[in-house]
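This is your field. Have a critical look at both lines of this record:
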Amino acid sequence: MKKFWNIPILIGYLYAITILVQGGFNSYFNIPLGFITASIVHNTIAAFILFKATLELAAFLGWWWLVVGPVIIAVGLISYIKFNDYKKIFIWIATIMALLFLYKALDFGEFLAKWKTNFLILSPECHKVNGNENYIVAELYDGKAVLVPYDITTNKLGDGFMLKEISDLPCKLQYKDIGFIIK
C-alpha cells in the first residue's frame, strides 16, 4: 500500500476528485458532463476552490471543527511519524477515507452548486437574451458562457441551457449575489 500512494497516483486522484466535483456542480444546473473543462490550470483553480469550500463547510458545521480537525490531523501525522507499527494502519485508513471522499465527490459538487449565491449575470440593461427569460452564467467553457435560465421571482432553475460566445453577448457580465438557485 505504501508504494500505491506515489506522486503520479496522488495527482491522478486529485484530478479525479476535481473532475467529479465539477461534474456534480454541472449536473445541478442540468449541464451535460461534456462541458467539464479538463485543463490543468482550470482544475488547479478548482482545487483551491474545493479547499476554500471545505473550510467554509467546516465553519458551517461549527467553530469546534476548526479546532478538532487540525488536532486530529496533527495526532495522525505524529502517530505516523513516531510509531512505525501504526504506519500500515494509518495508510489503510487514509486510503479508505480517500476512496470514500472520491465516492462522495459528485455529491460535494452538487452541494457547492446548491449553496452558491454569487453568479455572473448579464448586466441590467440587457438581461433578457432569449425572450422573457433571465439567465445566470453557471460556467465559462472555452471562452463561451453557459447560460442557464432561472425565474427571477422564485430563483428556480428553468429547463435547458444556452452556449454563447462572450464576445457576442450584447452586454457585459457582472457578478451579483442573487441568492440560492433552487433546482
Remarks:
- Residues 87-115 form the longest helix (29 residues).
- The mean pLDDT is 77.
- The longest strand covers residues 134-141.
